[in-house]
C-alpha cells in the first residue's frame, strides 16, 4: 500500500497540475505573452526591492520554526548551524516540495549535527504542526475581521469566508488548550510524539503568523495598483493558495498557487497579476535557493584553499551532505529555465541588433541545441543528487553549452548569468561527485519522474500560451527567420521529445552492474589473521568464514568485515582493531557505501560504542542481548546448578568424556564431524546459514581447537573453540551433537566453562539471545512491540524465548546489542536484507552451517 501511494502521489500531482494549467489558460484566454512582458517592465524597482527585503525578513523568521522544534524535542544546537539547516531546508521545500526537497535536505543537515532519525522525524512533524497552527490563526483572523468576497463565477453556495474563519480560530484555540491539558503522547510512524508545552505552543503561534503575514506581504507589494482588495483580504487569498499547494503535493505549487491567486484576486488586469506572480517566484523561491548554493559553493572553495579548523569542520561536513542535493535542484531549475527561455518569444530589440552580427543558421542551431541541452540537464540532475562523477561532467558541459546558446539565440544574458552561477558552484564542488556509474542505470524515483513531467508540461504549456494566436500549419516546421519564434518552438519541442525518447530506450537496454567488490587477496587475509589474533572479542573470528569483504584502516591495524545484500551494506559487529581507529574507519565505510548509493548497516554493535555511530548520523535499534559468564571464579556448586551437576555425573558414569583436540590434529576428525553435523541438520530440519552464524566448512574449522564429547571413543558432539591471545574471553562458534543422547549440550557447556576457568580466561561468551530484553511498554515504539511479540510467541520458527531461558541456566551477564543503520523508512528493508543475508540457502556441494546462538 505504501509503495502504491508513493507512485500514485506524483501521478496525482501531475494530473492536478494539468487541470490547473487548463484552468489558467482559460483565465488568461484574452491575454498574450507580450502583455505579461509589459507587466513585468511596469513593476517599479522600488517594489521589487521592498519585496526582496520582506523575503529576507521572512527567511529570518523561518529559523524560529527549527529553533522551536529543537526545543520541543530537547535538543540545543549552535544558532548558525540551525539557521543554515533552516534556510536550505525551506529553500528546497518551497521549490520542490517537502517530501522531495525539504525533508531530505534537513535530514542530511541534522544527521551531521548528531540528531537521530527519530529526532529528525519529530522535528519535521513539529515544523508541519507550526505551519498549520499559523494557517489556522492567521486565516481565522483574516476571514473573520476582513473577509474577501468569493467571485460569482465560482457559483459557490456562500459568498464570504467569515464562517470558515470562525472554524479556523476554533481549531487554533483548541490546540492551545490541548497543550495545557493533554499530556499523553501520540503514536506517529511507530514513535511517541508529545504535544509541546503551552509556552512553545504560544511561540509557535507567533512565529507562524509572522511568517505568513510577511510572506503574503512579499507578493502583495508587487501587485498592480488597481487591485480592489485590502491587505487582510489578500492575506486570506494567499492562505488559501498556500493550503492548496500543500494539499495537492505539486512541487513548488507551480500552477496551483497561481490559479488560486488569479481566480480570487479582484483585479481587472490579470496580466499584471501574472507578472507579479512571476517576479514573486523569482524573489521568494529562486533567489533563496541560489543564495544557498552560492554560500555552499563558497564554503567548498574555502575548504580546499585553506586549512579548516576543527570548529569549521562540522560546517564543511554539513556542506558535503547538503550540497549535492541542492546542486541537483539548481541544475534541474537551470534546465527548466533553458526550456522556458526557448519556448517564449525572444526580445525583438535584441534580435534586431543580433542579426547584424550572427548568421541565421547559428541562431536557429543555438535555439534548438539550447532546448535539447535543457532537457538533458533535467535528466542529469538526478545523477547529481546521487553524486555521480559522470553526471558532474555531463552537467558541467550542458551548463557551459547553455550559457553559449543563451547568448547566441537572442542575447538572453539573464539566463546566462543564472547558468553561470550554477556552473561556478558545480566547479567549486568537484570533490563531492565521486561515485562511479552510469546515469542511465540509476533508478529515477516516482517523485523525480513527476518533476520531469511537470517541467516538460510547463514548458510546453508556456510555449502554446505564448503562440496561442499563431495559425499552426505544416509550413511552420520549415519556416526559418530571425523573428520566427513559433517555428523554433515547434522544432525545439521535437528535440526535447527526442532526448526523452533516446534516454528511455537507453535505460531499457542498459543493465545495471552490481557493486564492484573483489574477494580478499592473500595479503589482506594475512592482515586479517594478525588483527583477529589480538582482538579482545572472539566474534572477530567470523572474519575467517570466507563470506565477507574487508575495509582496512590506513595503517592496516583495523578492519570492517561486511557483505552486500541488495542496497544494504551490512558490517558484522563493530570494527576489529584498536578503538582509536574506529571513527575514521566507520566514516570511510560510510563513504564506500555512499559511493554505490548503499545503506551503511552495522549488525550487533556493543553499547559502549554507540556514540561513534550516532556521530555518523545512524539510528540505533536494539536487536537482543549478548550473554557472557564470568569464569575466573566459576563453580557448579550450589543449589542453582543441582540439575546440571546431576546431568554431568550421569554422563560421566555412562562413559562420556570431554576432550580438546588441538587444531593441528583435527584433519582426521573431519569426516566424523561432518557426519554429526549432517545428522544434526536433518534431525532439526534446519537449513545452513552464514554471515553472523558459523557453517560447517573444513577449511574454516581447521583454524580452531575442537572440543569433543566421546562415548566409547566415538565422537558424539563437537564445537570449535574461539579464544584470543589476551585471554579476555572464550566461546564456541559451531556446535553439533547427537540429539538422541539427553543432556549432551549441558555436559559440553559445563566442561567448556570449567576448561575456560582452568585456562585463565575472564569470560565465556554464550552469544546473543535475539529480541530479548526489548521493552514492550504500552507506548513503546512499534519495533519494540513487534520484537516482544515475536520473542514470546515465535517458537513456531525459532525458539527465541527458549534460547535465552537455556542460556540463563549458566548465569550470564547480559549486555544489549544494536543495529546501527540509516533507520527511518529504510529500516524495514534493512531488516529484511539482514535476515536474507544470514538465512541465505547454501548449496549442498558447499555445506555450511549454523551457530547454536
TrEMBL record:
Annotated Phosphatidylglycerol lysyltransferase C-terminal domain residues: 537-820
Recorded superkingdom: Bacteria
Topology term for the membrane: Multi-pass membrane protein
Keyword entries, A-Z: Cell membrane, Membrane, Transmembrane, Transmembrane helix
Signal peptide annotation: none
One term under GO cellular component: plasma membrane
Main location: membrane
Pfam families (UniProt xref): LPG_synthase_C (PF09924)
Transmembrane residue ranges: 49-70, 82-100, 120-144, 164-182, 202-223, 235-261, 273-297, 318-340, 391-409, 415-433, 445-469, 489-509
One of the GO biological process terms: phospholipid homeostasis
Gene Ontology molecular function terms on file: aminoacyltransferase activity
Compartment(s) of residence: Cell membrane
Keyword set includes Membrane: yes
Entries under InterPro entries matching the protein: Acyl_CoA_acyltransferase, LPG_synthase_C, PG_lysyltransferase
Protein's recorded name: Phosphatidylglycerol lysyltransferase C-terminal domain-containing protein
Amino acid at each position: 500500500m505504501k509503495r502504491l501511494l508513493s507512485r500514485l502521489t506524483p501521478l496525482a500531482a501531475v494530473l492536478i497540475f494539468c487541470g490547473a494549467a487548463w484552468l489558467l489558460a482559460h483565465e488568461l484566454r484574452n491575454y498574450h505573452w507580450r502583455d505579461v512582458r509589459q507587466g513585468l517592465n511596469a513593476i517599479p524597482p522600488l517594489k521589487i526591492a521592498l519585496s526582496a527585503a520582506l523575503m529576507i525578513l521572512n527567511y529570518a523568521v523561518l529559523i524560529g520554526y527549527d529553533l522551536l522544534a529543537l526545543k520541543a524535542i530537547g535538543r540545543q544546537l549552535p544558532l548558525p548551524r540551525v539557521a543554515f539547516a533552516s534556510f536550505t531546508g525551506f529553500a528546497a521545500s518551497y521549490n520542490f516540495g517537502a517530501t522531495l526537497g525539504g525533508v531530505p535536505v534537513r535530514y542530511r543537515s541534522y544527521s551531521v549535527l548528531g540528531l537521530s532519525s527519530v529526532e529528525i522525524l519529530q522535528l519535521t512533524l513539529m515544523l508541519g504542526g507550526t505551519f498549520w497552527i499559523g494557517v489556522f490563526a492567521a486565516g481565522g483572523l483574516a476571514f473573520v475581521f476582513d473577509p474577501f468576497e468569493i467571485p460569482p463565477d465560482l457559483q459557490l453556495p456562500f459568498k464570504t469566508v467569515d464562517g470558515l474563519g470562525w472554524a479556523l480560530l476554533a481549531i487554533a484555540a483548541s490546540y492551545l488548550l490541548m497543550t495545557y491539558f493533554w499530556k499523553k503522547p501520540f503514536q506517529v510512524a511507530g514513535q511517541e510524539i508529545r504535544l509541546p508545552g503551552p509556552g512553545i505552543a504560544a511561540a509557535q503561534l507567533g512565529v507562524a503568523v509572522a511568517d505568513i503575514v510577511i510572506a503574503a506581504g512579499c507578493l502583495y507589494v508587487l501587485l498592480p495598483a488597481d487591485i480592489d482588495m485590502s491587505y487582510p483580504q489578500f492575506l486570506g487569498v494567499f492562505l488559501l493558495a498556500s493550503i492548496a499547494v500543500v494539499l495537492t503535493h505539486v512541487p513548488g505549487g507551480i500552477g496551483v498557487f497561481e490559479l488560486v491567486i488569479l481566480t480570487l484576486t479582484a483585479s481587472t488586469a490579470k496580466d499584471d497579476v501574472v507578472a507579479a506572480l512571476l517576479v514573486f517566484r523569482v524573489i521568494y523561491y529562486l533567489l533563496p535557493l541560489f543564495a544557498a548554493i552560492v554560500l555552499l559553493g563558497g564554503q567548498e572553495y574555502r575548504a580546499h584553499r585553506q586549512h579548516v579548523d576543527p570548529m569549521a569542520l562540522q560546517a564543511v561536513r554539513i556542506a558535503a551532505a547538503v550540497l549535492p542535493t541542492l546542486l541537483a535542484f539548481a541544475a534541474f531549475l537551470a534546465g527548466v529555465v533553458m526550456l522556458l527561455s526557448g519556448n517564449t518569444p525572444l526580445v525583438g530589440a535584441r534580435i534586431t541588433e543580433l542579426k547584424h552580427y550572427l548568421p541565421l543558421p547559428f541562431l536557429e542551431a543555438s535555439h534548438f541545441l539550447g532546448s535539447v541541452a535543457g532537457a538533458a540537464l533535467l535528466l542529469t540532475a538526478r545523477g547529481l543528487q546521487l553524486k555521480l562523477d559522470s553526471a558532474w561532467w555531463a552537467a558541467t558541459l550542458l551548463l557551459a553549452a547553455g550559457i553559449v546558446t543563451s547568448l547566441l539565440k537572442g542575447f538572453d544574458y539573464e539566463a546566462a548569468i543564472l547558468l553561470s552561477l550554477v556552473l561556478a558552484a558545480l566547479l567549486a564542488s568537484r570533490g563531492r561527485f565521486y561515485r562511479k556509474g552510469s546515469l542511465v542505470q540509476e533508478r529515477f524515483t516516482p517523485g523525480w519522474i513527476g518533476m520531469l513531467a511537470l517541467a516538460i508540461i510547463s514548458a510546453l504549456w508556456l510555449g502554446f500560451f505564448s503562440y496561442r494566436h499563431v495559425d499552426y500549419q505544416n509550413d511552420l516546421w520549415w519556416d526559418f527567420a530571425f523573428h520566427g519564434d513559433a517555428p523554433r518552438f515547434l522544432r525545439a519541442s521535437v528535440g526535447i521529445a527526442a532526448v526523452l525518447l533516446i534516454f528511455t530506450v537507453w535505460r531499457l537496454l542498459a543493465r545495471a552492474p552490481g557493486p564492484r567488490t573483489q574477494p580478499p587477496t592473500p595479503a589482506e587475509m594475512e592482515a586479517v589473521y594478525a588483527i583477529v589474533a589480538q582482538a579482545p572479542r572472539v566474534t572477530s573470528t567470523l572474519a575467517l568464514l570466507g563470506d565477507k569483504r574487508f575495509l582496512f584502516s590506513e595503517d592496516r591495524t583495523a578492519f570492517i568485515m561486511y557483505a552486500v545484500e541488495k542496497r544494504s551494506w551490512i558490517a558484522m559487529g563493530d570494527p576489529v582493531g584498536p578503538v582509536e581507529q574506529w571513527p575514521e574507519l566507520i566514516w570511510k565505510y560510510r563513504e564506500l557505501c555512499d559511493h554505490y548509493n548503499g545503506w551503511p548497516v552495522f549488525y550487533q554493535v556493543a553499547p559502549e560504542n554507540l556514540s561513534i555511530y550516532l556521530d555518523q548520523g545512524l539510528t540505533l535499534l536494539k536487536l537482543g542481548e549478548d550473554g557472557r559468564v564470568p569464569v575466573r571464579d566459576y563453580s557448579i556448586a550450589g543449589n542453582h546448578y543441582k540439575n546440571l551437576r546431576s546431568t554431568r555425573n550421569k554422563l560421566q558414569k555412562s562413559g562420556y568424556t570431554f576432550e580438546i583436540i588441538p587444531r593441528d590434529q583435527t584433519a582426521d576428525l573431519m569426516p566424523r564431524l561432518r557426519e554429526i553435523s549432517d545428522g544434526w541438520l536433518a534431525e532439526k530440519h534446519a537449513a545452513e546459514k552464514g554471515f553472523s552464524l558459523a557453517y560447517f566448512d573444513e577449511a574454516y574449522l581447521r583454524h580452531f581447537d575442537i572440543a569433543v564429547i566421546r562415548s566409547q571413543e566415538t565422537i558424539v558432539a563437537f564445537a570449535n573453540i574461539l579464544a584470543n591471545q589476551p585471554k579476555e574471553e572464550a566461546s564456541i562458534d559451531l556446535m553439533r551433537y547427537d540429539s538422541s543422547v539427553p543432556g549432551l549440550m549441558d555436559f559440553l557447556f559445563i566442561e567448556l566453562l570449567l576448561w575456560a576457568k582452568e585456562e585463565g580466561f575472564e569470560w565465556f561468551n554464550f552469544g546473543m539471545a535475539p529480541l530479548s530484553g526489548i521493552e514492550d511498554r504500552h507506548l513503546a515504539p512499534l519495533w519494540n512491540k513487534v520484537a516482544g511479540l515475536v520473542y514470546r510467541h515465535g517458537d513456531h520458527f525459532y525458539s527465541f524465548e527458549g534460547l535465552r531461558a537455556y542460556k540463563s541456566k549458566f548465569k550470564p551477564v547480559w549486555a544489549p546489542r544494536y543495529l546501527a543503520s540509516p533507520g527511518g523508512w529504510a529500516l524495514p528493508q534493512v531488516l529484511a536484507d539482514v535476515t536474507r543475508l544470514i538465512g541465505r540457502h547454501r548449496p549442498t556441494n558447499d555445506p555450511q552451517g549454523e551457530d547454536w546462538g
